[in-house]
From TrEMBL:
UniProt organism field: Planosporangium thailandense
Protein name as annotated: Pentapeptide repeat-containing protein
Gene3D superfamilies on file: E3 ubiquitin-protein ligase SopA (2.160.20.80)
SUPFAM superfamilies listed in its UniProt record: Pentapeptide repeat-like
Top-level taxon in the UniProt lineage: Bacteria
InterPro entries: 5peptide_repeat, PA_immunity-related
Pfam families in the record: Pentapeptide_4 (PF13599)
Lineage of source species: Bacteria, Bacillati, Actinomycetota, Actinomycetes, Micromonosporales
């Protein structure tokens, strides 16, 4: 399907005038401190949003969806290729178990939605903000993220293999056992995140920043060349680093 027609009902008048504004990026900057990594650009808001109507605006192959508000919509279980989604807002939307291939999302806002077990390949997000959403098992493989913020999201067991990160911020997210195998994380920042058991094997991490994160059981520490870790995080990471380097740690007093 393509964009909405003029007969599509408008989003209720009590909807925020600028749904893309907010403190997410600024809060990440305050909590993360200074650094060379670029702050993600905010999504460019549309002049107006029209309410999406199902099934007309359910994702379909080669469909284009612009300036739509998906509110409490059920898009779960769908499959589509070459979808283009621009300046759309998703609030309380169910996208779980959706399968996407070669999809593009630009200038979008996702709030309080369910993206659990969504699987995408060869797809991209540009200027996208995701807030307080459930994303357990979310998979974005062999893709691209540019100017993207994930704030207070549940991203445990998520997969990001072979994906490139350019100005991407994770703030307050649960990323336990996330898989970043061979991802380019040089443009990523993690602030206040739980990365317990996350896998970083063969990832590119020059310039990747970690601030106030839980880093227990990390895999692929030999790939952390060039990463920037806050002092107190490095102390917590000492045992993992020692194990990766084959250094034994003794609790015995040899004095």
């Amino acid at each position: 399907m393509s964009t909405t027609s003029s007969t599509t009902p408008a989003v209720p008048s009590d909807a925020p005038q600028s749904p893309y504004s907010g403190p997410v990026v600024d809060r990440a900057r305050r909590r993360g401190g200074g650094g060379a990594s670029r702050t993600p650009a905010k999504p460019r808001p549309p002049s107006s949003l029209e309410l999406a109507v199902l099934p007309d605006h359910r994702f379909d192959h080669e469909g284009t969806y612009r300036r739509l508000g998906y509110v409490d919509a059920d898009l779960s279980g769908g499959a589509a290729e070459s979808v283009e989604v621009e300046q759309c807002r998703f609030r309380g939307t169910d996208l779980s178990t959706t399968t996407l291939d070669r999809a593009r999302f630009t200038d979008c806002l996702v709030e309080h939605s369910n993206l659990a077990n969504l699987r995408a390949s060869d797809s991209s997000w540009a200027r996208v903000r995701v807030v307080a959403s459930r994303m357990t098992g979310f998979t974005w493989a062999d893709g691209s993220l540019r100017d993207v913020v994930f704030d207070e999201c549940r991203l445990d067991l998520s997969g990001w293999r072979f994906t490139d990160f350019h100005a991407v911020a994770f703030t307050g997210c649960n990323l336990a056992r996330a898989d970043f195998y061979r991802a380019d994380l040089s443009g990523a920042r993690f602030v206040g995140c739980d990365l317990t058991g996350a896998q970083f094997s063969q990832a590119t991490m020059k310039g990747t920043r970690f601030v106030n994160c839980t880093l227990a059981g990390i895999g692929g520490l030999t790939s952390w060349d060039g990463a920037v870790v806050q002092g107190q995080d490095l102390i917590a990471l000492a045992y993992e680093l020692a194990g990766a380097l084959g250094i034994g740690i003794s609790d015995e007093d040899d004095s």
